[in-house]
Amino acid sequence: MEYRRLGKTNMNVSILGFGASPLGNTFDVCDEVEGIRAVHYAIDHGINFIDVAPFYGITLAETRLGKAIEGKRQDIILATKCGRYGVYDFDFSYDRIIKSADESLTRLKTDYVDLMQLHDIEFESKEKVLNEAVPAILKIKESGKARFIGITGLPVAYLADIARIVDVDTVLSWAHYNLLADGINDELVPLSKEKGFGLMNAAPLVQRILSDAPLPEWHNAPQKVKNTQPKLLALCAKYGVKLSDVAIKYAVDHPAIASTIVGMWELENVKNNIAAVDFNIPEGLLEEIDTLVAPVKNCMWFEGKAENNIQRK
User: Rounded distance, CA 72 to CA 63, Å?
Assistant: First the structure.
């Protein structure tokens, strides 16, 4: 496992991060015993960054993760979030953010997290994020309940706008650096170098499109993007490799991204994902993938408030 410094923090995070959302039955029903074994295996094999949120499984993922990290808290860099509590349940008010942090600490069985993040900020007004949520999360950091603070979301240009205003320690963007998209490079990569925040990338498999698993019914990607999955699987089969291995290796190789977070809970998947960090992509395959996906490259969907879905191109 390789490690990179997370911006100006003193934390060196594994380039492959453990996304704990599946512990909350996000995609499939997770067997708790195996999920805990998977967390232990990940930690024992070099993954030191684990990301979770109260939204995942409506607190179930945090609860299960809290059980899994008992006795191993000192071995990990732990991140959670606040502000989003359900599919349509958002509360970025000052008091709720403060309360949310305490609730997460109880579920995670710890007295601090290394990183507390505002979750999917595009779903709230810019004014409320800046005037209530940011002061609250800064208070959490001041109290010692979080060592560092960050923001997360889907629209990369909006994340960049907020990061220009607020001195956050980290920015977590999802689905914007993978075999189908590279929007993270437009503003967030140069801005992270300019301002010194740690940059993270989540969902490099684009919620299963870049894997051999069936897509969830709720997937928001345009159908033309979803239609690339069987074509990519066939292309990778021609080279004798797995699409997910190519996708993970491609993502973790970005030098400006500190950690790439992949959701996982099954032990076999954890083993495969860790092995993918050292995978060698066959010569010529990426060129063929680029040609195949060119018609849908960066064909992203949008979530949250319309005014926050900023497009600069």
Answer: 15
